[in-house]
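Handout, section B. The chain below has 161 residues.
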Amino acid sequence: MQGMDPFAIPVGLQNSFYPLAGYDNSRDIDRDISMMKEMYPLLVRQILLEIEHECDKLEYAGSFMFDEIPDKTLLMMMTDKIYRKTAPAFMDGAPADAYDNPPPCSGFHGKFPPNGCSGNNHDSYPDGSPNWLSGLINVLLCSEMCERRRRYRRRKNMFLV
């Protein structure tokens, strides 16, 4: 049979043998991720630098970043912290705390508060329009944490063989 590789792993079993053979393609994944991050726009790379700085502070054993299910409240607090540091670059001279204290929601008695009535929630502005910067920071933060969790698991499992 010409053109067939006698050492090729069958399609259904390709990924299952990598850990047994001591090989995973994490270096390739790391290289691809860093290459794609270099293609981000300049302002997004600046946000990412701040996110990486905050994640560096959390990279220790027992950190909530490495919990099986990270705490969403702590994740949102990190998002808010990064938002406050990076928002002035996007807000055209407005003070950094311009949206920290939305106006009180008078007359609200329902189960779900309307937009802008949830305290320090930066998902939307007080006028109800979506806050794209907070969403972007949250997505970048979750992505960075996933990468670090993958690397942490790889290092942790390397010595369990």
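Note. The chain is about 45% helix and 0% strand. Compare this with the example in section A.
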